[in-house]
Amino acid sequence: MGNTINLKIFRLDPENARHEPYYQTYTVKTKPGMTVLEALFNVLDEQDGTLSFRYSCRWAICGSCAMTLNGKCRLACKTQISEYRGTLTIEPLPGLDIIKDLVVDLEPFFNNYRKIKPYLVPEGMPDKENIQMQEDVDLIEPHIKCILCAVCETSCPISWTSREKYIGPMALTKVYRFNRDTRDAGGKERLEVVRGEDGVWRCRTIFRCTEYCPKNIPITEAIQFLKRKSVFK
Ligand code: SF4
Ligand code: FES
């Protein structure tokens, strides 16, 4: 018999008669290179077809498989099961409403995203291709790598306590990314959205977003940049 791990998984089905959340433990046989997402598939395919979780690319690109692994928000497809021994507790992302099991309602997260015009705003109608040189790309690297996974937002204690107000670290990172893009002319408008107390000033520089971001984006640094920009017009 090879190695095994116990997955203690948060369960909740609001449409089921059993309304209270509970934990259910499944034992999974592990193999080298196995990710947490693959272990969840083992449960789904071989033990319990009622388990719900989000995924798509399985390659740390789509951002849909974020969940809480032993108390830390991480991508299930990017996390090796070999990092854990004995029992791994798997829960949904914190601070958001639960739809079912490990699936949360990301609408508040994407509402914040929509608020900041997350696209390039051209200055008038361009009459030729807007070419970027490497130094232009360097300005927005690695912020351009954001995959909208919500790990930064759900790891941030300020976002937990001010969910209705704080625009959140992802939206602020996106403002940084678009405002520094040499093809964009919408910076002033975006800065107006985030310059108030529910924008950059609600960040208390706790650094959890930066610590947990699976794409290693220096989010806190970007927010500090926007704080300076919002003071010195
Ligand atoms: S900034 Fe990082 S943690 Fe936040 S949504 Fe983007 S990739 Fe995820
Ligand atoms: S399944 Fe796409 S990021 Fe994990």
From TrEMBL:
GO BP terms: respiratory electron transport chain; tricarboxylic acid cycle
Superkingdom: Archaea
Domain 4Fe-4S ferredoxin-type positions: 136-166
Keywords assigned by UniProt, alphabetized: 2Fe-2S, 3Fe-4S, 4Fe-4S, Iron, Iron-sulfur, Metal-binding, Oxidoreductase, Tricarboxylic acid cycle
Cofactor requirement: [4Fe-4S] cluster; [2Fe-2S] cluster; [3Fe-4S] cluster
E.C. number(s) listed in UniProt: 1.3.5.1
Molecular function terms, GO-annotated: 2 iron, 2 sulfur cluster binding; 3 iron, 4 sulfur cluster binding; 4 iron, 4 sulfur cluster binding; electron transfer activity; metal ion binding; succinate dehydrogenase (quinone) activity
CDD domains noted in UniProt: fer2
Principal EC category: oxidoreductase
Pfam family, one: Fer4_8
UniProt xrefs under InterPro entries: 2Fe-2S_ferredoxin-like_sf (IPR036010), 2Fe-2S_ferredoxin-type (IPR001041), 2Fe2S_fd_BS (IPR006058), 4Fe4S_Fe-S-bd (IPR017896), 4Fe4S_Fe_S_CS (IPR017900), Beta-grasp_dom_sf (IPR012675), Helical_ferredxn (IPR009051), SDH/FRD_Iron-Sulfur (IPR050573)
Name of the protein this chain belongs to: succinate dehydrogenase
